[in-house]
């Protein structure tokens, strides 16, 4: 597998982590704005703890410490089973967990930016919660959260390089192997850097088109 061919592994890891982070971020954002104190406390504890620990430490805890803890628990309970995470699963779970905390704050700010009058009007017209979410909340959330979402995505893409440390054969893993085998670190790390820069450029173009579409809709609404 070449360095650039390993790019598909990096891209799949980033996209899978983004899905996990988005779901966790949405759930935690709604929990933080919930009327229930227990939900607010759990969501606040999640974002506080995850954002306060270095990403690499979280990754090592998930990949090494969590399976060891579960296996020791199984032994204590007399259960004949073993748990072991692959680098793909551990990497996706870790990045999703970490960036879910950052997405939480992004989505929470977007939700707070939606005028309350629109929600009250939707309730007065008898819209169900589901229709209110899809027709009123979600479109405005996308527009308001897109700058923060874009920033989180770009940092997440760069964060995928950490997963090579637990054995995932991604771009960085291949670049490191090729550099050590040939004694030409500058050449192969430059290829890896070019891959991440290309991915960043493509992401900015795609998300810029999405932002333009939702910004046009907003302008038409306010005229």
Written account of the structure:
This protein is mainly alpha-helical and 223 residues long. The protein has eight helices and no strands. It starts with 6 loop residues before the first helix and ends with a helix. Helix 3 packs across helix 4 and helix 4 crosses helix 6 (129-159). 82% of the residues lie in helices and 0% in strands. It is flat. The mean pLDDT is 88. The protein has helices at 7-32, 37-52, 55-77, 87-113, 116-124, 129-159, 171-182, 185-222.
Short description, anyone?
By secondary structure, the chain is mainly alpha-helical.
Cα(first) to Cα(last) distance is 54 Å
Structural class: mainly alpha
User: SSE order in H/E notation?
Assistant: HHHHHHHH
Radius of gyration: 21 Å
List the helices and strands and how they pair.
Layout: H1 7-32, H2 37-52, H3 55-77, H4 87-113, H5 116-124, H6 129-159, H7 171-182, H8 185-222
